[in-house]
């Protein structure tokens, strides 16, 4: 069965600094997609970034980028120039026929 | 112009009651889901429907029964509510294919007292 592991329950970063959230997953599939979702206090689930497993190039969306290591089954999220609005729960997710989430990392931004 | 909407947003009810949560999506997606988010924020898939057909039924008590009258709607009915059912329930939808993300409703916070 596919599993997604986020080993950091909580992290803190100073405003304007860079932070990396870790995610590993387990699958026997070769073709799949990975996502990072953000859940602010409003509770809404917001897609941050996606990565296709067959693409070697790491996805980037403005200040958000991923480090995708397929062989290691690792999919970390880097947030550059952290802003107060980045404070939220971040969930790593895997999708082949159903979307499975990690347990989340709560990110605090220190002013 | 909400893409995935669920009602109600909050639900407080007594143990033993039966309640329903409604979900509708206007994205034309063919797959809909119910997720449960517990107090530790863990998101666990409960059910998945594709074109009104049940595809995934994770280990969920029989008291939970999803109903999909058409592919734009997936309602969740819960019988004989228990204290442990208190959680946030999210409806989501996506198009078939692993390349599409899920779009989520705003969640329903269910509190059983």
Characteristic terms for this protein:
heterodimer, A: about 110 residues, mainly beta, four-stranded antiparallel beta sheet, globular, B: about 110 residues, seven-stranded mixed beta sheet, 11 strands, about 0% helix, about 55% strand
Beta-sheet strand percentage of chain B?
Answer: over 45%
Number of helices of chain B: 0
**Span of the ends, CA to CA of chain B:** 34 Å
Give the overall average pLDDT of chain A.
Answer: 93
Q: Please report the two chains with the greatest interface, counting residues with C-beta closer than 8 angstroms to the partner's C-beta.
A: A-B, 24 and 24 residues
Main sheet properties of chain B: 7 strands, mixed
Tell me roughly what share of residues is in helical segments of chain B.
under 10%
The whole-angstrom Rg of chain A is: 13 Å
> What class would the helix/strand composition of chain A place it in?
mainly beta
Quantity of strands of chain B, as a count: 11
Q: Give the uncertain stretches of chain A in residue-range form.
A: none
**How many β strands of chain A by DSSP?**
12
Provide an overview of this structure.
- The complex is a heterodimer of chains A (111) and B (113).
- With 111 residues, chain A is mainly beta.
- Chain A contains no helices and 12 strands.
- With 113 residues, chain B is mainly beta.
- Chain B is 0% helix and 56% strand.
- The termini of chain B are far apart.
- In chain B, a hairpin with an 8-residue loop joins strand 9 and strand 10.
- In chain B, the strands form 2 sheets. In chain B, strands 2, 4, 5, 6, 9, 10 and 11 form a 7-stranded mixed sheet that branches.
């Amino acid at each position: 069965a596919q599993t997604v592991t986020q080993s950091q329950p909580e992290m803190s970063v100073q405003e304007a600094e860079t932070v990396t959230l870790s995610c590993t997953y387990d699958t026997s599939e070769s073709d799949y997609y990975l996502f990072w979702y953000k859940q602010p206090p409003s509770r809404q689930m917001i897609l941050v970034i996606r990565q296709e497993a067959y693409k070697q190039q790491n996805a980037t969306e403005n200040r958000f980028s991923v480090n995708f290591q397929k062989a290691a089954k690792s999919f970390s999220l880097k947030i550059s120039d952290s802003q107060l609005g980045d404070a939220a729960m971040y969930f790593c997710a895997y999708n082949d026929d159903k979307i499975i989430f990690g347990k989340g990392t709560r990110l605090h931004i220190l002013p | 112009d909400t893409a995935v909407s669920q009602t109600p947003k909050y639900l407080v009810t007594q143990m033993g009651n039966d309640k329903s949560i409604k979900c509708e999506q206007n994205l034309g997606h063919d797959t809909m889901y119910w997720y449960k988010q517990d107090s530790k924020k863990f998101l666990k898939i409960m059910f998945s429907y594709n074109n009104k057909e049940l595809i995934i039924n994770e280990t969920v008590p029989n008291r939970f029964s999803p109903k999909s009258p058409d592919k734009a709607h997936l309602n969740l009915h819960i019988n004989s509510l228990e204290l442990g059912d208190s959680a946030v329930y999210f409806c989501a939808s996506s198009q078939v294919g692993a390349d599409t993300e899920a779009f989520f409703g705003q969640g329903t916070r269910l509190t059983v007292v």
